[in-house]
Amino acid sequence: MKKINKLCAGLVMLATSSFGFANSSSLWEESTLNKVIGANELRVCFEAGYMPFEMKAKNGDYMGFDIDIAKLLAKSMGVKHTPVNTAWDGIIPALLTNKCDILIGGMTITSQRNLKVNFADSYIVVGQSLLIKPSLTGTIKSYKDLNDPKYTIAAKLGTTGEISAKKLIPKATIRLFESEAEGALEVANGNADALVYDFPSNAIFSSQNKGRVVHLDEAFTYEPLGWAIRKGDPDFLNYLNTFLRQIKGDGTYERIYNKWFKDDAWLKNVQ
Questions:
Q1: pTM here?
Q2: In whole numbers, what is the pLDDT of the chain averaged over residues?
Q3: Cα 198 from Cα 219, distance rounded (Å)
Q4: Pairing relation of β-strands 194-198 and 118-119?
């Protein structure tokens, strides 16, 4: 009887092992990482115009912090980097319908977005800040001072800037725009009192438009940005987190960060 029991136990272990192996193999075959390697191409979704993360260069190419990171990621896989410029309001659907393999485009990690996609570990933290009309200098010292119906707030449609404006400045009149550049120009032209948008972009726009806007250079929200992928892909997620740890540990990340955030030499190449 003992021999029979041992034999049965061995058969169960073998079956379990075989099933686990098959299941693991199936996961890898369906992984985006495996498919990217097979296609020799990494397709990366983003929306050009978010300085200094992704921009159109004068020569027609794309440039920016995210672009450099994406190129390095593709290189680490030994595949071609293919940029996929996509309108922001359709960028998650583009990922979900396989128009790209990954979204590297300055996307804030939120629980709502996490219901649709999975995020790798955050690669940078930014927050919302304010661009205001010069005439409001001294009057508007924080977002709280704008919480009045007499003020018109610009924000980009579908962003955390829109969410923050509606949540934190609900009494103000909020106007939504397709791009942050449109919203910033409304402030610069005196048609809006303030723009709520990401700190890096506001800082750059204010430096390019001195006298036309004022940047209140203190972020009032905490927003970790992350790379988004389709759900159910542990192999790809593991690879991305390993890649991020590696470039942060060997100094590569710091070099790229300093190029885009601590130097403005790249501005002359922006379209």
A1: 0.77
A2: 91
A3: 8
A4: unpaired
* Dihedral sign (CA 32, 37, 39, 44): positive
Long-range contacts of residues 251-260, Cβ cutoff 8 Å, at least 24 apart: 252/72, 253/123, 256/65, 256/68, 256/69, 256/72, 257/65, 257/124, 259/65, 259/68, 260/52, 260/53, 260/64, 260/65, 260/68
DSSP-derived secondary structure letter, 42: E
Q: pLDDT exceeding 90 applies to what percent of the chain?
A: 80
**Which pair of tokens denotes residue 104?**
């590297």
**pLDDT at residue 58 tops 70:** yes
Q: Which domains does the chain have, with CATH numbers?
A: 31-125+224-269 (3.40.190.10), 128-221 (3.40.190.10)
* Rounded CA separation 57/268 (Å): 9
Taking the C-alpha atoms of residue 244 and residue 9, their distance in angstroms, rounded to an integer, is: 43
The token pair at 223 is 């927003």
